[in-house]
Design a protein that fits this description.
single chain, 250 residues, alpha/beta, TIM Barrel, 10 strands, binds guanosine-5'-monophosphate, binds manganese (II) ion, binds sodium ion, Diguanylate cyclase (GGDEF)-like protein
């Protein structure tokens, strides 16, 4: 059994699971939505995290059916949540090569009944480098539909700031590597503070990822981030384990 064969089977047999991690409004501390994070429930190897199979899925093209599964599952689940909660879904750069991606997203929204305004698509900078103008047009179509766009893992890629201004992002997600040691390292604060200033100037909001301690959260609030996500507010969990303030419809 190759891992690729196993992954192909897993997609066909619905052995993939979507877990959800909350993010909160930094000012009020209120939950604003969840990020969908895929896991593989392997029959013998147990629960496999995405960093062990996303790259393989990208190399083999399996990311296309996998990504569709995650998006459809996430939209269907989120359609049953209280209406103020967003659902954020990661898109791989490889999915962008699919001509049908826009239609697939429209179909996932229509089939689930989720309003486009409640869907946020997370993409990494690599998407902006290759096929920049096609991807730009694709992103504009998503925006016209009402979908929100977030730039994920900001600060880890080939960040040329010109990309930020050229693409229609609503939100920047600061990578968790900048949040680590935030309370010890003045340099991290300076970086985050600059990102917040930049984002404000571009009319974008900022999420801090990987927030683990109250001290980090306090510092981030003082620095002006809009949203926070991390173990402090909750780890990724299956839908059954997420507790809502309001009852979840099924
Ligand atoms: O879930 P975890 O925190 O271990 O996520 C590890 C990485 O896998 C993250 O970079 C995340 O963006 C990526 N990832 C998780 N779920 C998905 C998914 O559904 N699609 C894609 N393309 N990447 C995902
Ligand atoms: O899509 P992205 O690369 O941002 O995926 C988020 C990743 O970060 C997932 O692997 C998730 O499990 C992980 N993560 C989420 N919150 C925390 C946190 O507070 N600390 C750490 N170390 N990892 C986190
Ligand atoms: Mn993400
Ligand atoms: Na990220």
């Amino acid at each position: 059994n190759t891992l690729e064969g196993d992954l192909r089977d897993a997609i066909a047999r619905c052995q993939l699971e979507v877990h959800y991690q909350p993010f909160v409004d930094a000012l009020s501390g209120e939950r604003r939505g969840f990020e969908a994070l895929v896991r593989w429930r392997h029959p013998t190897r147990g629960l496999i995290p995405p960093d062990q199979f996303i790259a393989l899925a990208e190399e083999t093209g399996l990311i296309v059916p996998l990504g569709e599964f995650v998006l459809r599952r996430a939209c269907a689940d989120a359609a049953g949540w209280p209406a103020e909660l967003m659902i954020a879904v990661n898109l791989s750069p490889i999915q962008f090569k699919e001509a049908e991606l826009f239609d697939m997203i429209c179909a996932a929204l229509a089939d689930s009944g989720l309003p486009p305004q409640r869907l946020e698509i997370e993409i990494t900078e690599s998407v902006l480098l290759e096929r920049g103008s096609e991807n730009h047009a694709f992103m504009e179509r998503l925006k016209q539909l009402g979908v929100e766009l977030a730039l994920d893992d900001f600060g880890t890629g080939y960040s040329s700031l010109s990309y930020l201004t050229a693409f229609p992002f609503d939100k920047i997600k600061i990578d968790k590597s900048f949040i680590r040691n935030l309370t010890q390292q003045p340099r991290s604060s300076a970086i985050i503070s600059s990102i917040v200033t930049l984002a404000r100037g571009l009319d974008m909001s900022v999420t801090a990822e990987g927030v683990e301690t109250p001290e980090e959260f306090d510092r981030l609030k003082a620095l002006g981030v809009n949203f926070a996500q991390g173990y402090l507010f909750g780890r990724p969990h299956p839908i059954e384990r997420i507790l809502f303030d309001a009852p979840v419809k099924s």
